[in-house]
Design a protein that fits this description.
It is an enzyme of class 1 (oxidoreductase). Keywords: Dioxygenase, Iron, Metal-binding, Oxidoreductase. GO terms for molecular function: dioxygenase activity; metal ion binding. By secondary structure, the protein is of the alpha+beta class. It has a single domain, classed as Jelly Rolls (Sandwich). Helices cover 33% and strands 25% of the residues. It has ten helices and 16 strands. The strands form four sheets. An eight-stranded mixed sheet has the order 1-2-12-9-14-7-6-3. Strands 8-13-10-11 form a four-stranded antiparallel sheet, with no helix packed on it. A two-stranded antiparallel sheet has the order 4-5. Strand 4 and strand 5 form a beta hairpin. Helix 2 crosses helix 5. The two termini are 27 Å apart. It binds 2-oxoglutaric acid and fe (ii) ion (FE2). The site of 2-oxoglutaric acid has 10 residues, from strand 7, strand 13 and strand 14.
């Protein structure tokens, strides 16, 4: 099982000055050493978490002909559904059904199930507020002024997606994969699952470790863009999903990034402060990085293509 930092979100927003500073330091350390942390007391009601999970389940349960129109082939389709088995370039098979929708700045929702749009709007809004608060803490942990970062990357008008992942039960760890090893593209992603069925594994110090979700918690992943803007100080999380031998599993992931047209750069303040005075990544437009990742989806291949030197 993976060791993880547990962050009490309520202390970040309502704690004393000292409590907040302690949490900011804990978040910074988790982003630097592990690339993820668990979030408790985050304020997303259990009823909303259950509702968004049920709404995704209802979508996957629609007859295939009703889901067909969303089987998008284009990368930037705002609603994109995929189902079944996929083969990687080297012939490896993985199995998951997914639905990916854009939720911000504009919500795109399938017409059915009927309640889908309102629930995703609400879940998207709640998690977006959490992500903004976490990013404020992250900039603080890097000794950056929020305004300084905002001038470079406008996260408030940024891009948020929501993904429902549905994995079948499978032959068990190391035999079947739901998702191959990858890192998430955006700045942060927030992963939610209901129930105790495990499957998510994170790579740490040369080993794959299974995540045991703390009941009611959310998991926060550092994404590739945060590795770039922090000039390599914070590491995006390499993770994969194994199929569970006895139960199917569902996860809901939301990813927050800047405006797709924004150029993502190692923040100059951090390049100057790094001692070596060198940027460790070349700058790239977010939208171009998404295209690069689509062509190089596994491991941290896309990030390695914009890396200027070993970190
Ligand atoms: O199913 C999970 O726990 C994680 C899914 C994931 O990594 C993703 O959608 O990028
Ligand atoms: Fe992921």
């Amino acid at each position: 099982m993976a060791e993880m930092t547990t962050v009490d979100f309520s202390q970040l927003t309502c704690g004393t000055r000292d409590e907040r500073s302690k949490i900011v330091r804990e978040i910074g350390r988790a982003c630097e050493e592990r690339g993820f942390f668990a979030l408790v007391n985050h304020g997303v009601p259990a009823s909303l978490r259950a509702a968004v999970t049920a709404a995704m389940e209802d979508f996957f349960a629609l007859p295939a002909e009703e889901r067909e129109e969303y089987m998008g082939k284009q990368l930037f389709d705002p609603i994109r559904h995929g189902a079944g088995r996929t083969l990687t370039a080297d012939g490896f098979e993985y199995r998951r059904d997914f639905l990916r929708i854009f939720v911000h700045p504009t919500l795109h929702s399938p017409v059915k199930p009927l309640h889908f749009s309102a629930i995703c709007e609400e879940y998207g809004r709640k998690t977006r507020e959490i992500a903004h608060e976490l990013l404020r803490a992250i900039w603080e942990s890097l000794d950056l002024e929020e305004g300084f970062v905002g001038a470079i990357m406008d996260v408030r008008s940024g891009h948020q997606i929501l993904i429902g992942n549905s994995y079948p039960s499978g032959p068990g760890p190391n035999l079947g994969l739901g998702l191959p090893a990858h890192s998430d593209i955006a700045l942060l992603s927030i992963v939610m699952q209901e129930g105790s069925t495990s499957g998510l594994q994170v790579f740490h110090q040369g080993h794959w470790n299974l995540i045991e979700f703390i009941p009611d918690s959310l998991l926060v992943h550092v994404g590739d863009l945060l590795e770039i803007v922090s000039n390599g100080k914070y590491k995006s999380l390499l993770h994969r999903v194994t199929l569970n031998s006895t139960s199917a599993r569902m996860s809901i992931v939301t990813a927050i990034g800047p405006n797709p047209e924004d150029r993502v750069v190692p923040l100059p303040e951090l390049v100057r402060g790094s001692g070596s005075s060198s940027a460790k990544f070349r700058s790239i437009k977010y939208i171009e990085f998404v295209e690069l990742t689509a062509r190089n989806p596994f491991d941290k291949a896309a990030l390695n293509l914009v890396r200027l030197c070993d970190v």
